[in-house]
Amino acid sequence: MPLIILGVIFAVALGIYAFFASRAIAEEDKRIESERRKKAAEKSGGGPDSAAGDNVIFLSDDLEREKKRHRKRP
User: Fold this and answer.
1) What is the pTM of this model?
2) pLDDT digits (tens, 9 = 90+) for 40-58
3) What HEC string does the chain produce?
């Protein structure tokens, strides 16, 4: 009888531990995902006050000139 009670206590404690561990893992995943989204937003130009240095827009004559320069490169 004492062994059965000890087993039930162990099973309940294991269940409680698994519940709290899964919640902690889920919160950590949410935090990592929000950081990843924030970095992606900063990289893509984020807001109106940030400069979009990664995107370059060429006008039609500039595009042709850049094509010629690119072909000349070894």
Assistant:
1) 0.48
2) 877 766 555 455 555 666 5
3) CHHHHHHHHHHHHHHHHHHHHHHHHHHHHHHHHHHHHHHHHHHHCCCCCCCCCCCCCCCHHHHHHHHHHHHHCC
CA angle 56/49/58 to nearest 5° reads 15
Positive or negative torsion for Cα 39, 45, 47, 49: positive
On whether the CB atoms of residues 25 and 18 are closer than 8 A, the answer is no
Residue 50 one-letter amino acid = S
Q: What is the largest CA-CA distance in the chain?
A: 90
For the chain, first and last CA: distance in Å?
Answer: 85
Output the six-digit token pair for 57: 């827009």
